Amino acid sequence: MDRFFSIIAGYIDQYAILPVLYRCGWMQWSDLSFDWALVCVYGLFAVLATYAICWPLEAAFPVERWPDKKAVAVDVLYTLLSRVGIIPVVSFLLFYQVQTAFSGALVDAGFIPPDLESLIPGLFGHPVVTFLIYALILDGADYWRHRLSHRFRAWYALHALHHAQRQMSFWSDDRNHILDDLISFAWFFVVGLAIGIPPLQFPLLILLLRFMESLSHANIKLSFGPAEYVLVSPRFHRRHHAMRAAGRRSCNYGAVFSVWDILFHTADFTNAYFPTGDARAPEAMASGGYVAQQLAGARLFLRALTQTRPRPQP
Ligand SMILES: [Zn+2]
Ligand SMILES: [Zn+2]
After folding, report:
1. Ligand with an atom nearest the CA of residue 147
2. What is the mean pLDDT of residues 200-218?
3. pLDDT tens for each residue of 123-174
């Protein structure tokens, strides 16, 4: 599979990226152009695989049926921008470059950055177990990032864009304000440095976690039964997006594993499929186009930063 991706990335690099770099006089980037293409190919594969699995399920077992799906179309744009477009290229390469430079500087200073296998020697030779522990730790970090984004008014002003969607579908996972994406990136960057994720493992780990996150937003009547005590299902995450839970008094913050919500007493396993949205968010955030949503989020963010009065909670 990896070889297949590499061959496609090679073609894209050779026939699309390199000629552009050459024509524009940017050949200093040519060492990295194959990696750019590979990141885009991985992203595109992830989007297609998610679509192939989630679309039939949404058609067969929908929670809601919408005659007009205009609001879903914006979420498709968010997904393509953040998984195939410029964002993964920049974030992956930035992570890779800075992590390599940072680790190199630490080694030069006589300090070996930690990684899980050196902290727990028993993990040597068990890459799948190591992979799962990394996934669990990253998910725990994401639990706290998400929970804090509901706690601070200015941060929630950005995150409200994610919650404003009333037509929530498997496309909705990437529906985020660009400043919120930047905060997430910085958050994972620090965590990644702290636990020493091998750079090559990072994109695969993210792809798998991201699929589960897309599925959890899907407009599907689906719970995982007893497995819901470990994994976040569409029903579990829909409870987080419930219109009446928007804001500080939310629950079910976990992205992939529900264990963090259970551990920190924020899990709610109510067997119901609530309408989604945030009634307090500006309408432009719910039904506007991409630019209108981003501007509305930025305005709400600035207002929250400049006002001292706490936003009243429902
Ligand atoms: Zn949230
Ligand atoms: Zn969500």
Report:
1. 1
2. 79
3. 777 777 887 888 888 899 999 999 999 999 999 999 999 999 999 999 999 9
Question: What three-state secondary structure class fits 141?
Answer: helix
CA of 237 to the centre of ligand 2 (A): 7
Distance 143 CA to ligand 1 centre (A): 10
Domain ranges within the chain, ordered by starting residue: 2-306
d(CA 142, CA 151): 14
Q: Identify the residue whose tokens are 């500087």.
A: 105
> How many A from CA of 184 to the centre of ligand 1?
13
**Dist. CA 170 → ligand 2 center (Å):** 10
Interacting residues of 142 by C-beta distance below 8 A, sequence separation 6+ = 187, 188, 254, 255, 256
Candidates 116, 113, 88, 119; CA nearest to 101 is: 113
Kindly report the number of other CB atoms within 10 A of residue 28's CB atom.
8
Ligand nearest to C-alpha 237: 2
Q: Which ligand is nearest to the CA of 148?
A: 1
Ligand nearest to the CA of 168: 2
241 C-alpha vs ligand 1 centroid, how far in Å? 7
CB 160 within 8 A of CB 176: no
Question: Given phi > 0 = left and psi -120 to 50 = alpha, else beta, which region is 158?
Answer: alpha
Answer yes or no: is pLDDT of 13 > 60.
yes
Rounded to the nearest angstrom, the distance between the alpha carbon of 151 and the centre of ligand 1 is 10
Are the C-beta atoms of 300 and 159 separated by less than 8 Å? no
| Mean pLDDT lowest among 33-42, 70-79, 297-306 | 33-42
